[in-house]
Amino acid sequence: MELNSSIREIKGIGEKSGKLFNKLGVYTVGELLCFYPRGYDIFGQIEPVSSLQEGRTVIIEAALKYLPKVTASGNLKVTRAVFKDTGGSITAIWFNMPFMAKMLHMGTHYILRGRTACRNGVLELHQAKILTRQEYSNLTGTLQPVYHLTAGLTGNAIAKAVKTALCETDLNGDFLPACIRKENNLMPWKKAVHAIHFPKDKEECINARRRLVFDEFFLFALAARQMKKTKGQIPSKYIMNNSVLAQKLLNSLPYKLTKAQDAAWQDIQKDMQSGKVMNRLVQGDVGSGKTIVALLSLLMAAENGFQGAIMAPTEVLALQHYETFTALLEPLGIKTGLLTGSLTAAQKKKVYAQILAQETDIIIGTHALVQEKAEYKNLGLVVTDEQHRFGVKQREALYSKGKEPHMLVMSATPIPRTLAIILYGELDISVIDTMPEGRKPVKNCVVNTSYRPQAYKFMQKEIQAGHQVYVICPMADESENMEAENVISYSQMLREKIPPGTRIEFLHGKMPPAQKNSIMESFAAHKTDILVSTTVIEVGINVPEATVMMVENAERFGLAQLHQLRGRVGRGTAQSYCIFMAGNSSSEVMDRLTVIGNSNDGFYIAEQDLKMRGPGDFFGIRQSGELGFKLADIYQDADILKAANKAVSNFSSGDIIKMCMENGRLKEQIMSYTGTVFL
Ligand code: ADP
Ligand code: MG
User: How far is 274 from 665, CA to CA, in rounded Å?
Assistant: First the structure.
């Protein structure tokens, strides 16, 4: 098998499971090998029941104390069985696994592995697996990969496919030149790919990850340098004059730009008038007002006779931008268009035609903007919103839709200056470091689930005052996980707890886009009071009347993500509130949530997050996914980023690319990472 062979060539993957892999974005053997675990299950030692703590995966050895009971709760079948060892007893609970009751016998000793949870002050063991003594001794001390799943595909099936692929593919080629590997003490690629899936121990896992993170940064640094070389200081075909309409729009806004917004806007105007191609990053924390800066820039381009496009990472956000832009720009005679993946073929065709005929001045959309058929007539400015959500690849794809258009990227990720220079080496940077006037800092509280009744009362009070509420759950529906809240069951429960008449809707990523859009629109139009949602609303969404954000199972999110979520409130002049609700109150969880509870400063939070994780602590399941990296985390791996950047800058571009190509596979890897920047 080759890296680019279809996964269908792997023994055991038929049409049906092949489709499930595709759903996870895995089409080829290479993609399967790069479908890294989201974490590892570490098999520890047997613990005495009396010393168990909540919120942990534990192993106990105990005898059945009473015969198991199966009860029904709604459409859920709950099996309960009490186990005891010499020091204590605990109730084990299985959801929708009634057959467990038949498997358990009085007097027998079992080794059970499950997760502890606290309910009504009593510790329980959830969804425990029963291990034979042999299994236990084989697995103790090992790290088992845990993968992102999709309904119908188990972790075991993925692990098995990965094992087969590892055996039957030639992985000897290594694009990273030996001298760079040696200098940075990196293992060969083949070994790293093996070990990232099936590490012998923690140390090997950390080293494998280091190698693969280095690769990501290395290719990134290579691409960034290449872009800088090709772009830096090229003369622009789109030289602009002052925008009269932008001034008119500014005069009509209900607010004045903050000093920082104005400075960014001045930078952009200068760039677009300079005769050189603009490459600018606008960095500003959530809520600092980046959208209006993007809008003014696009307006200036349109007034000068050029088309502009703005790309957002989600449909929900693209639609919201479209509405904001249309409301402000249409009165000025500027024509806007929306292009997203959920349009019908006929609708798309119409939009494509309008774009090509330049009947549309400003096109707002998702990555559908860069699909093959979208052809622009006179694209002078491209904007990427929430840049940290995209890889270099998408940003470049949009850029390459035009003939060296001006480029503006907006990002809310707080990045220390030294890293920003590497990550955004080819860009000039404007920082929006102040918030609009009149904003009150969001008031936070970190609580456990016993606070729910009070939280619901508080939400009702806010709703009566004419405000709106977000509730975030980690899961979409029951199928995913029994241990965390899901939006569907949660909104049902909420309807029972909150007086009728309160308009509650739910939203999650698995819904068809049109439905998502209409739910979001109804919330934005204040036809909904409470929106129960997964993190699909995390990026960019702006509903200033929403004043309460409640995050269920807050322990399941990274601090940076919680900060983004909190950024959905506090966007108007009213006081806003954020309730971080922890599903378990272990001290580790509480310490971490306290950081975000005590600070609204994205920069500080990112730093603390890093400190608390400590370098090399990869066994959790937090992966930022920022800037399109798979494993690399710009905070945690800042040192590797610097090393990779140094490795790249030690050689001339030509030399390094030649060296890498000699070892094969660089082309594929770089292409898959950066699109068409190279070669
Ligand atoms: P972000 O930087 O997160 O993209 P937005 O651009 O969505 O933030 O702005 C958040 C909110 O602040 C919007 O409702 C916007 O209208 C408002 N806003 C932007 N600039 C100002 C300003 N200078 N004064 C008051 N409100 C502003
Ligand atoms: Mg925004």
Answer: 40
CA–CA dist 225, 645 (Å, integer) = 10
> Among candidates 313, 319, 323, 326, which has minimal Cα distance to 366?
313
Structure tokens at 481: 């996980």
Provide the b/e sequence for 397-418 (b: ≥16 CB within 10 Å). bbbebbebbbbbbbbbbbbeee
Q: How far is the CA of 568 from the centre of ligand 2 (A)?
A: 10
Flag the least confident range among 353-357, 394-398, 489-493, 562-566.
Answer: 394-398
Per-residue pLDDT tens for 166-220? 999 988 878 888 899 999 999 999 999 999 999 988 889 889 999 999 998 888 8
| Protein residue with its CA nearest to atom 19 in ligand 1 | 289
Is 438:237 a contact under the CB 8 Å cutoff? no
Across the strands, what pairs with 73?
A: 76
Q: At what angle do helices 392-399 and 202-231 cross, to 10 degrees?
A: 20
Place of tokens 């929306």: 338
- Report the relative pairing of strands 307-311 and 143-146 from DSSP bridges: unpaired
Q: Which residue would you say has higher pLDDT here, 636 or 613?
A: 636
Strand partners, 130: 112
CA of 317 from ligand 1 middle (Å) equals 14
d(CA 679, CA 666): 11
Shortest-distance atom of ligand 1 to CA 285: 2
| Of residues 395, 400, 334, 397, the one with CA closest to residue 362 | 334
Please give the backbone phi and psi of residue 386, each rounded to the nearest 5 degrees, phi first: 50, 50
Higher pLDDT among residues 402 and 306, named by residue: 306
| Residues 339, 328: Cα–Cα separation, whole Å | 19
Q: Whose CA is closest to 557, among 547, 565, 546, 548? A: 565
Measured by CA distance, the residue closest to atom 5 of ligand 1 is: 289
Half-sphere exposure of 314 (CA within 13 A, CB side): 20
Q: Is 429 exposed, middle or buried (0-12, 13-18, 19+ CB in 10 A)?
A: middle
Residue type, 498: I
Residue 314 has what pLDDT?
Answer: 84
Q: Which residues pair with 343 in a beta bridge?
A: none
CB 508 within 8 A of CB 532: no
Decide if 213 contacts 36 (C-beta within 8 A).
no
Q: Cβ neighbours of residue 552 under 8 Å, at least 6 residues apart?
A: 471, 472, 473, 474, 484, 485, 490, 581, 583
- At residue 80, φ and ψ (nearest 5 deg) are -120, 135
CA distances from 612 to 132, 185, 557, 589, 598 (A): 36, 26, 14, 11, 15
